[in-house]
Input
Amino acid sequence: MSKDEIPKLFDGSVNELTKPSRRREERAARPNLKKEKMQKTLYVSRDMNRKLIELYGEEGRRQSTIVEDAVNLYYYLRLALGEKKFDELLSAVKREDPDFLREYLQRFRL
Output
């Protein structure tokens, strides 16, 4: 048994009481996986999950990549179109009619 493996007894000093234990230091050094997970958690409706699975099957990409692309598209369309035009576009998308959306987008001459 080495010197480091022998547990030290409490010497009764204030410094010993206020000094953080090695375990706390080790825990602080490890990344907080729960916090990391919370940042990546995305709650979606069943319908949205079905659409993600369908896109994943068609494109063969990870769902996280698809979601990142969707967020980027949403963000830059909002910046480019402005609030009013973007709200109009969202209402057209919410109709869930691809033909109507195609006609609507042709007005922008994309």
About this structure: The chain has a mean pLDDT of 79.
